[in-house]
Amino acid sequence: VTVSRKHAVFSSLPDGGYGVRDSGSLNGTYVNRTRVEQVALRSGDEVQIGKFRMTYHTGGTASGTSGAGRV
Fold it and tell me: What is the pLDDT of residue 44?
């Protein structure tokens, strides 16, 4: 499964947190194993782009970073 350079966009939301939007990719963007066009992310959501899986976490700190929204 391939991933394009502009496969998906992660962006901050006006009310806080982050969202992901598929950029018209052929293979799709998945959140919690469901194909999505655009969705607000919640802590613990699994985002899959191609063969890569990332888990979104909010709050806390990781390796000295602010931890406002990590993927």
Answer: 97
CB atoms within 10 A of CB 27: 16
Amino acid at 32: N
Give the Cα separation of 69 and 40 in Å (integer).
12
**Exposure on the CB side of residue 4, measured as CA atoms within 13 A:** 12
The angle formed by the CA atoms of residues 55, 67 and 65, to the nearest 5 degrees, is 120
Answer for the pair 21, 37: CB distance below 8 angstroms, yes or no: yes
Residues 9-43: pLDDT tens digits? 999 999 999 999 999 999 999 999 999 999 999 99
Looking only at the bridges linking them, the beta strands covering 52-55 and 46-49 are antiparallel
